[in-house]
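Attaching the record inline, Q. Sequence:
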Amino acid sequence: MVIPHEFTEEAVAQTAQGADAPYRDFHESGEPYRSLVRHNPWMRPPGAKDELEWGKGRYYDTTCGGLDFRPPPAAVWWRAMGTSEMAARAIPMGRSCMCAG
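Structure, as predicted:
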């Protein structure tokens, strides 16, 4: 199959030169991440070669786990529903998807 000229790498590169790209300045600015880290230095992710530091109120201490974890409402709903009821709801949904097409 022949690729139309408009979709070749050369045509795309030629068309992209000087093209008006909305929000280009924003995308190239690094915001909002740059200002988040500047104003909240504890959120700066560690470097790839840095040793992990726990318990100092830095990057990895911002995750919630263990007893602090609160599952989303949908997860609580699905856990409360018995396995047989889940199957009873899922099988008809699967069948309707196959029929749709």
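Residues 71-101 form one domain. The chain has a mean pLDDT of 75.

More tomorrow.
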